[in-house]
């Protein structure tokens, strides 16, 4: 069966446990989806796989000052490179994991990624050179990319349509609790020791995922979708991803939206902790408050998406995101780049709320037409959007000048460009037919 035919074939969504095995288009009995783990555990495990990415960034943020002092970094913006190096590792490696998982299956590739992540954590734990620390962060990112890619591919293996969007939203809700607790956890760890202990926590997370996934998650890749390794086949899958208008348009929009988020994460320590609002040890409280709003939005999205539809929620979300970005710019100009803390937190939280109503649905709509090449598509879209967001976040974050104006402009401008790509993907029509 050709890739376009496979993409159009109806796949078993596995949304109801105990369904009889479906018939494939070739008339053969398809292997029923595994019934383990049950729905709540499935969501929790997927969320933790996705959360490893955020955990490895956010719990390190309170240590930026200590790391800057330890390595005697003259440029205070240089410590942000730890975030973007990690993201570059994730973005580059994602191109690899998806195609290989379509050949070998999801489980062995995830175990390999966790091992690489653990190796990077060990290097970071023992280095005394900042450049080596940056290299270790790249290695960590290369390993963490396996979880990022395979979490989405596993969801697509078992679910589709609005059910897939619901799973992604619920996973995002759990995933977004990580930024709530991770900076606080990093601060607690710093009370008992140096920033090196934070990398010990990362090792512990890798071990937990290895054991939990190994014991509870069976292989989810359908045997009929397991493909022999072929560069030509991978190329055809990538071409299918690139030439599917909806997938390509929403992928670019995701990268742009995530670019604003990465700029916020990279500069959050300087904005809240050290340079502008000087919250010091209260920094995790402000960071957690914004992340908590995103978690609420993800829960609302999961509750509404099956009734309202992905397009209405996400298109309304991105329009509101741009309007909020414009308000952020206006408040920055009105207060010489330093609006009152409560006002700035309220605006950022509003933008992140709308982000959480938008990006999970964008991701589902990008993946929906690509079920037959889910691993490669998830890999390519994930790698592309992560690289794009890390580069955009780097430039916006490095523009930090002691005010919140560069960050505010990033939200407004990147959101507006993302809307342009959504219009292209939908042929100029917003709030159209559902899903």
From TrEMBL:
<dbReference type="GO" id="GO:1990961">
    <property type="term" value="P:xenobiotic detoxification by transmembrane export across the plasma membrane"/>
</dbReference>
<dbReference type="GO" id="GO:0042910">
    <property type="term" value="F:xenobiotic transmembrane transporter activity"/>
</dbReference>
<feature type="transmembrane region" description="Helical">
    <location>
        <begin position="248"/>
        <end position="265"/>
    </location>
</feature>
<dbReference type="InterPro" id="IPR020846">
    <property type="entry name" value="MFS_dom"/>
</dbReference>
<keyword id="KW-1003">Cell membrane</keyword>
<feature type="transmembrane region" description="Helical">
    <location>
        <begin position="341"/>
        <end position="359"/>
    </location>
</feature>
<feature type="transmembrane region" description="Helical">
    <location>
        <begin position="403"/>
        <end position="424"/>
    </location>
</feature>
<feature type="transmembrane region" description="Helical">
    <location>
        <begin position="285"/>
        <end position="305"/>
    </location>
</feature>
<feature type="transmembrane region" description="Helical">
    <location>
        <begin position="38"/>
        <end position="57"/>
    </location>
</feature>
<feature type="transmembrane region" description="Helical">
    <location>
        <begin position="195"/>
        <end position="215"/>
    </location>
</feature>
<feature type="compositionally biased region" description="Low complexity">
    <location>
        <begin position="14"/>
        <end position="28"/>
    </location>
</feature>
<comment type="similarity">
    <text>Belongs to the major facilitator superfamily. Bcr/CmlA family.</text>
</comment>
<keyword id="KW-0997">Cell inner membrane</keyword>
<feature type="transmembrane region" description="Helical">
    <location>
        <begin position="77"/>
        <end position="97"/>
    </location>
</feature>
<feature type="region of interest" description="Disordered">
    <location>
        <begin position="1"/>
        <end position="34"/>
    </location>
</feature>
<keyword id="KW-0813">Transport</keyword>
<feature type="domain" description="Major facilitator superfamily (MFS) profile">
    <location>
        <begin position="39"/>
        <end position="435"/>
    </location>
</feature>
<keyword id="KW-0812">Transmembrane</keyword>
<keyword id="KW-1133">Transmembrane helix</keyword>
<dbReference type="InterPro" id="IPR011701">
    <property type="entry name" value="MFS"/>
</dbReference>
<feature type="transmembrane region" description="Helical">
    <location>
        <begin position="371"/>
        <end position="397"/>
    </location>
</feature>
<feature type="transmembrane region" description="Helical">
    <location>
        <begin position="167"/>
        <end position="189"/>
    </location>
</feature>
<dbReference type="Pfam" id="PF07690">
    <property type="entry name" value="MFS_1"/>
</dbReference>
<protein>
    <recommendedName>
        <fullName>Bcr/CflA family efflux transporter</fullName>
    </recommendedName>
</protein>
<keyword id="KW-0472">Membrane</keyword>
<dbReference type="InterPro" id="IPR036259">
    <property type="entry name" value="MFS_trans_sf"/>
</dbReference>
<feature type="transmembrane region" description="Helical">
    <location>
        <begin position="134"/>
        <end position="155"/>
    </location>
</feature>
<feature type="transmembrane region" description="Helical">
    <location>
        <begin position="317"/>
        <end position="335"/>
    </location>
</feature>
<dbReference type="InterPro" id="IPR004812">
    <property type="entry name" value="Efflux_drug-R_Bcr/CmlA"/>
</dbReference>
<dbReference type="GO" id="GO:0005886">
    <property type="term" value="C:plasma membrane"/>
</dbReference>
<feature type="transmembrane region" description="Helical">
    <location>
        <begin position="109"/>
        <end position="128"/>
    </location>
</feature>
